[in-house]
Amino acid sequence: MVKVNRQGEVWIFAEQQDGKLSDVPLELLSKGRSLADQLSVKLSAVLGGFNVKPLSDELIAHGADKVYLVEDPLLQDYQTTSYAKMLCQLIEKHQPQIVLYGATVLGRDLAPRVASALKAGLTADCTDLQIGDYTELKTKNTHKNLMLQIRPAFGGNIIATIVNYDWWPQMATVREGVMPLPERNGNLKGEIVTESIALSPQDFPLEILQRHRREKKVNLKGARIIVAGGAGVGSRENFRRIWDLANCLGAAVGGSRAAVDLGFIGHDHQVGQTGTTVRPALYIAVGISGAVQHAAGMAEAAKIVAINNNPDAPIFQIAHYGIVGDLNDVVPRLIKAIRSKQ
Description:
By secondary structure, the chain is an alpha/beta fold. The protein folds into two domains: 10-203, HUPs (Rossmann fold); 220-339, 3-Layer(aba) Sandwich (Rossmann fold). The protein contains nine helices and 17 strands. The chain has helices at 23-39, 54-61, 80-94, 105-118, 240-249, 257-261, 292-295, 315-318, 327-339, and strands at 10-13, 16-17, 20-21, 43-49, 66-71, 98-102, 122-126, 128-135, 142-153, 158-162, 170-174, 191-195, 225-229, 252-255, 282-286, 303-308, 321-324. The chain has a seven-stranded parallel β-sheet with strand order 7-11-6-1-4-5-12, sandwiched between helices. Strand 15, helix 7 and strand 16 form a beta-alpha-beta unit. Helix 3 (80-94) packs across helix 4 and helix 5 packs parallel to helix 9. The longest helix is centred in the N-terminal third of the chain and has 17 residues, at 23-39.
């Protein structure tokens, strides 16, 4: 366990692969900036790898006050043990009060290892982070300016707020897409701190012979318009109407978890708590009931249109516009109207 440092920095783990930053650390910088400003501390990023120094400028341009840079040929390929050692040594040396990771495949692998090694708390898959106070129920002691780690629990049926007032640093993984991507500002200035980590053969229990990566078939996070179908579509054949409507609008196609589980559409298209969180300008939900697990991934859309034959479906509570009717009747009419520019 690292000593509790109430004036410690807010840290973001800057995940990169093949010398490229994903959107996740940049999204985390957006929330990290807010947390750091409320705590009156610096916002820093930890960047490890080889030949990745140019990425430091990107992190600074997106809001980092400081970048801790660790460059080593041995860190070119991610391995849990070596990256966990890097983070643990830096955390013990600089004593940040908050460390955030993306809830990606890599982040979900790395964060628990670091938390276990440091005997620190960790909250997974957060959808929001805030700064607030907490009073212990038994002792009535009040702890000021803690990170409130907010995430769905019990299958998404409740929202839990988790605090960590004694086993620091406070650490969390944050779901992709739930934080807005900050605009790049090349005029921002920051500090690059070069660090070195003593690595040994024991830190590399695996030998990487080949790597195979499959790119996602759809970029839901970058889509301005999404047409999504749910279990109410009825069949894989009926889902063809969702594709037809999307093609008319130049939109991406999404699906609820129920639609994915039924085989109507692939997992890459899944929107919701266990899929992708999206913020499009327009989200059209067809045959989606609007359970809280799905709403968690699309409720921030600028405009939501819901099509459902059940007038009591929860989706109508968050939709800006609702159409009650059979999608097999409504969707063809929409397509006809769009094509005729009515």
